[in-house]
Design the sequence.
């Protein structure tokens, strides 16, 4: 059944990475993203690669899962890498055959771009989507945005909308499946026929689904009022997020990685340049 | 007598988008005594849900025309209330609705039960205690971290009841809360209601069209076409078989059997409502006839 | 010809952590020209059976025969099965989507590719059967009452004039008047057309009142199938399975414990009345 699809790509677990506070994880991810874009020397890329590999190993997510997660960007990855290799025209000429000219910088840029994308995707997915449940993530985002409430950003409302959406996605998926079956039983054909015909077939699902969503919304609003909801003011929370000592250490480590990357950029020798003979 | 709800000469008409009025309730006079268990019976369109929605102010003067008055916990809710006063009344009157899916707000059971107390600004330690207590009250211990969409209809509805209980209301209105459930779910909810009533600290009003869910109440009110058609104990109500049939409402099958026997001139005792009473009356009837 | 299930198994979410075997080697016959009641606890596979009958689900194992033909043998005829075995889902009113009730009822027949005048006749007939008047036919399905919406949705399936009509809880959530109205209309329809009707329900009272034959399901299998008398002969077993027996059956059971014995299983008030009258008139009721 549709409702069995796991939301997002969260894999429940008990690894040290799972245990990091969601707010810390979001900040760590941001720091690492900055680090990825700041990195320029071969040493910095090596450091980033080692860090992301360590985070991945600690999360106890299977390698297969990680590869699966990278699948959608394989095309982008190959395209950008090849683009760098064939269209960079600086550095020493390494290959000159027919119309193909490959320069040393092309190879170096390609490697850097490759590592950049891999590190970026793997750390964000390991830190955020694989090891943080959507619910906790929403709380984390709310937690980080709380200061913005002071300048009248409706942080609480935003978080509530997110959380209700998460709550109702499985319900609506189930309903979609039911309505589709019901319309199929009336002879609706979703897979063949002209574009017009198929659009019409989808209408038979979309209209009832919309009606149902509206009904959910109105009844839920009533129920929420009955349970004393009147906005975020004066609300408490059952599960307060706790920022522990370890979360602090993790943040320091990420900051250290960023600092390391910046420092390594200034090392006068670059291993990549040495390998490709410059 | 301490009445938690007093309804005087209440009439209500819905206003549609074109401003036309559709009468729903007509000249209702009812008092609900604190700590009692009342079942309101009636068909769809008899006005029973409208009445509930007026009591806890889901329906207001914006939705239609109100005549007469409803007083809840000493405050006239049909009159002019400040926002805070209205909010206070709403928190004292809990409401369990029909569709369990549309009452559950949060993504885990415990957070859903906590939703009400969180709105009230209760201390988290206190909320945790309430959550545990309420899960126990509805027999759903151990489901704290469950995702609502993985529960059965009856379980979801019990979570909804726990969520309402967590606000410590003085009165709970069950608005056709069993209509979408299977027999097990229905029984679980009815047992929960029964247990709440036994404890006695909360006033219970159930709105239903299943007559067998009304036989255990202290009092049964039958609404028809927006008017109070009958009002009395279950015994008084369900033994008036003709009157109930005249508005196409059922009576318990046992009552119906003895009613038929009475019409055939074979029985002149009181009409029983429950299974055991019926069996005993039958035994006695047969023994007596045989001499 | 009947609908026959031969060793049918069906599993939801196979190879996921949520795998759930709904049916395990089920054998089942749904007879022609009668109303079959399908009853069982939530999760006993009632709705699964319904969707296997018209080919929405394909069995993992075993075969479903409709009119003597394996319905999953020929993929091209999939659509035909939908028209042959009409399926009314739970809360079918939530599938209405056309601008008017009339158009919505015509949706199925249109998908069958019928000529315009035939569609018109079927819509008129189906609407008459479920008791929808001309006035509500031109309204939007979102503007009529809940009970009328339910009828419109059922009419949408009836208008396809299926040989078999399966209804999943057709009376769920309706008030007693609406419930009796829908169920007696269905019975009338069955008697008039002679098709085979399957009603899935939780209510033993309704089953006793409207069905000819009852199939009781328990977790992934059949507990019992047979006439009403056969089914209600063992109320204790039914109760243990979490099914509610009619109150009158419970009372008779109670009375028998007190020594009042009835000659036959009782599941309607009328039958109880007849038997008690016989006992009182000095018949052969053997009171101890």
Sequence:
């Amino acid at each position: 059944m549709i409702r069995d699809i796991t939301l997002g790509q969260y894999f429940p677990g008990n690894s040290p990475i799972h245990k990091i506070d969601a707010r810390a994880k979001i900040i760590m991810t941001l720091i690492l993203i900055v680090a990825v874009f700041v990195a320029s020397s071969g040493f910095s890329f090596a450091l980033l690669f080692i860090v992301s590999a360590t985070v991945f190993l600690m999360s106890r997510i299977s390698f297969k899962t990680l590869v699966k997660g990278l699948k959608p960007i394989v095309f982008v990855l190959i395209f950008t890498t090849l683009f760098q290799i064939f269209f960079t025209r600086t550095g020493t000429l390494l290959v000159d055959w027919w119309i193909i000219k490959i320069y040393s910088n092309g190879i170096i840029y390609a490697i850097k771009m490759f590592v950049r994308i891999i590190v970026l995707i793997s750390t964000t997915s390991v830190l955020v989507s694989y090891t943080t449940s959507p619910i906790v993530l929403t709380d984390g985002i709310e937690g980080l945005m709380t200061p913005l409430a002071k300048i009248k950003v409706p942080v609480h409302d935003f978080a509530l909308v997110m959380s209700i959406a998460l709550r109702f996605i499985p319900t609506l998926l189930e309903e979609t499946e039911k309505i589709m079956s019901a319309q199929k039983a009336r002879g609706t054909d979703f897979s063949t026929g002209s574009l017009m015909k198929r659009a019409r077939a989808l209408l038979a699902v979309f209209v009832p689904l919309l009606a149902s969503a509206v009904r959910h919304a109105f009844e839920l609003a009533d129920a929420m009022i009955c349970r004393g909801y009147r906005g975020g003011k004066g609300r408490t929370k059952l599960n307060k997020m706790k920022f522990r000592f370890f979360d602090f250490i993790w943040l320091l480590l990420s900051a250290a990685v960023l600092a390391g990357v910046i420092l390594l950029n200034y090392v006068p020798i670059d291993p990549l340049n040495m390998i490709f003979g410059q | 007598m301490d009445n938690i709800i007093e309804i005087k000469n209440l009439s209500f008409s819905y206003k549609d988008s074109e401003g036309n009025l559709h009468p729903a309730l007509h000249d209702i006079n009812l008092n609900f005594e604190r700590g009692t268990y009342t079942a309101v019976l009636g068909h769809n369109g008899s006005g029973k849900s409208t009445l509930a929605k007026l009591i806890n102010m889901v329906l207001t003067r914006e939705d239609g025309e109100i005549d007469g008055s409803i007083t809840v916990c000493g405050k006239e809710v049909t009159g002019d209330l400040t926002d805070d006063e209205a909010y206070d009344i709403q928190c004292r009157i809990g409401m369990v609705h029909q569709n369990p899916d549309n009452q559950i707000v949060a993504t885990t059971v415990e957070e859903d039960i906590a939703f009400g107390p969180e709105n009230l600004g209760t201390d988290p330690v206190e909320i945790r205690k309430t959550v545990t207590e309420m899960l126990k009250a509805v027999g759903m211990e151990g489901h704290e971290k469950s995702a609502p969409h993985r529960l059965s209809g009856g379980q979801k509805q019990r979570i909804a009841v726990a969520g309402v209980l967590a606000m410590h209301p003085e009165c709970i209105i069950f608005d056709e809360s069993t209509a979408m459930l299977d027999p097990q779910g229905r029984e679980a909810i009815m047992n929960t209601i029964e247990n709440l009533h036994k404890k006695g600290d909360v006033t219970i009003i159930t709105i239903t069209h299943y007559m067998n869910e009304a036989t255990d109440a202290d009092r049964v009110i039958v609404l028809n076409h927006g008017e109070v058609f009958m009002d009395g104990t279950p015994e008084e109500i369900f033994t008036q078989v003709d009157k109930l049939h005249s508005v196409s409402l059922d009576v318990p099958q046992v009552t119906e059997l003895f009613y038929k026997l009475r019409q055939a001139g074979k029985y002149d005792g009181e009409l029983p409502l429950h299974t055991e009473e019926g069996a005993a009356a039958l035994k006695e009837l047969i023994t007596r006839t045989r001499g | 010809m009947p609908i026959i299930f031969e060793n049918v198994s069906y599993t939801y979410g196979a190879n996921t952590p949520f795998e759930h075997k709904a049916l395990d080697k089920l054998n089942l016959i749904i007879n022609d020209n009668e109303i079959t009641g399908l009853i069982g606890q939530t999760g006993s596979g009632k709705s699964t059976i319904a969707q296997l009958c018209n080919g929405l689900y394909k069995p993992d194992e075993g075969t479903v025969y409709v009119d003597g033909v394996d319905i999953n043998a020929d993929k091209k005829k999939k659509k035909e099965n939908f028209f042959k075995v009409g399926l009314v889902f739970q809360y079918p009113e939530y599938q209405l989507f056309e601008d008017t009730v009339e158009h919505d009822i015509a949706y199925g027949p249109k998908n069958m590719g019928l000529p315009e005048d035939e569609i018109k006749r079927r819509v008129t007939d189906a609407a008459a059967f479920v008791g929808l008047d001309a006035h509500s036919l031109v309204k939007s399905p979102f503007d009529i009452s809940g009970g009328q919406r339910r009828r419109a949705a059922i009419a949408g399936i009836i208008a396809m004039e299926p040989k078999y009509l399966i209804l999943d809880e057709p009376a769920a959530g309706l008030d007693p008047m609406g419930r009796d109205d829908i169920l007696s209309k269905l019975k009338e329809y069955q008697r008039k057309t002679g098709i085979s009707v399957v009603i899935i329900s939780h209510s033993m009272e309704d089953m006793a009142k409207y069905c000819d034959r009852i199939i009781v399901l328990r977790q992934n299998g059949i507990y019992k199938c047979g006439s009403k008398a056969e089914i209600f002969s063992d109320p204790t077993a039914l109760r243990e399975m979490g099914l509610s027996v009619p109150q009158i059956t419970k009372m008779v059971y109670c009375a028998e414990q007190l020594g009042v014995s009835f000659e036959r299983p009782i599941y309607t008030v009328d039958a109880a009345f007849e038997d008690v009258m016989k006992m009182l008139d000095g018949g052969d009721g053997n009171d101890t």
Remarks:
- The first strand of chain C starts at residue 3 and ends at 12.
- Residues 176-193 of chain C form the longest helix (18 residues).
- The CA atoms of residues 45 and 158 of chain C lie 24 Å apart.
- Chain C is about 40% helix and 20% strand.
